[in-house]
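A note on notation is needed here, since sequence and fold are reported together in a single record. The reader may check this reading against the record printed directly beneath this paragraph.
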Amino acid sequence: MPKISLVIPVYNTGKYLSETLDSVINQTFSDWEAICIDDGSTDNSLEILREYAKKDKRIKVITQKNCGVVTARNHAIKYATSQYIYPLDSDDIIVPDCLEKLYGAMMAGHGDIITCRVMYFGRETTEMVLPKPTKHNLSHDNCLVNAALFRKSDFEKIGGYDTKFNLALEDYDFWLNMVVNLGAQIYRIPEILFYYRLKDQAEARNFQHCAEHASLKQKMAQKYPAIKRQHVLDKLTWPIRKIIRFLFRIDGNRVKICKTIKIRFKRTPINLFYFNSVSNFGDLLNIDIMDKLPHYSVRQTNIKHADIVAIGSLLQNVVCKKMSVPQKISRYVHTPLIVYGSGFIHDTENTVPVRRLDVRAVRGQLSLAKLKSLKHVKLHKDLAIADPGLLAPLLTDVSHIQKKYDLGIIPHYVDKDNPLLNKINVKNAVVLDIMQPPHIFLTQLAQCRTVISSAMHGLIAADALGIPNMRMTLSDNITGGDYKYNDYYSAFGITEHAVINLRQRSFSDTDINTIKKMYQIKPEQVRQKQNELLKVFPYKTKDKICL
């Protein structure tokens, strides 16, 4: 009997379904079953499910006429043989160690409902801000997404998902039912283990039925009288609760009285500047690596208010041709901007920095030479010359992943639909989507023996994982041309790097050995760069970080 049953309702999500199922198959925790229920799909969803079921016996497929997600979940859970249930929508993604950490928290007795932090991806990429998952907060608004681990026995006690909420908010009602009627405790793992896909409004079920949310919440108030009483009580006791929170603090199981008034500062989040207009692996690494290292919260901001710039050709945004007097004054008002591995996109002359710069790491020698020519730039005594994308292995453990493909093909997002990709004739090859969440991309990348990529951070991630790789060119559409690639390779002392120009030639199986022979970066060089980056990391870390 498996330990966890994943319940995956499927309705016309064929274009996303493979990503979801791959994220399940690649879990480090292997003792699971996936109950996939097709809710009368009219696209190719059922075909995809059956293909995966043939490959992996842990995936079970059942079908029903289109009845909606609530009926589908209830129906699928009846077939579950595990003690623990994990609902997962067929367009969302879980990171490789998600089930392992959820199950570990459940076994440690941390709660009856185990959830985690959530990242949006798809239409935009940012962390989903959710209230602390307490009974009090839950009485006001939902604190969880639909994906959380719970006991099947608790599901049966409350009668499953309520079909009255088939249009929307069925998960909110389900969590309320468990907390109010069973006294279930919620525990949130302080890590991003779940990626919630933001789709176009035409595809998003919650948006389509947002008009019904108010009436559905009225149904909840009638169903759970305790909620209404809680709202009235909150209004009456709000001033008292504020005073109590100020005067008392909880230390473990003890309540201590604050005899002296102290000003308490919350740990401020890191203000990070990075490009987020497109879901691109290199840019997404910024928030994931920053979040992984310091145990601070991270938020995206503009260059004026940023504390740090890291992965990407971001230094072009830090300089300008001419500054006004107010801008010059502002440069001294703001704290210095930390540079942690950024670079320039192209060579520029006669520019000045709009902020004072505290340079801890820089991508390569070309960017370093440019920084040395500028005023208001302070170089760290242990300056690292490396791209922080080399720290990508911190995000997920890929040591258990077996090689499946002779070649991984990574087109830059501007080259994604380039017809020249058809000139690659390798039998055992896979095309990797650079716009996927980093954890998923790295898991798929680890399955490749060699890589060709027109995306620079596809090459950098391959270097970080020790996979021989070579740059390919498909067009002139990548901003900056050769500059950023030359800059990155200069950190390893490489003045000329090999390039496969698919506008002039094709690529076949026999060329794979050429990649291995011409690959110049050694594992010990990568480890040295990783250690240098960790040494100059500008924020305190909770634990010692090792690679």
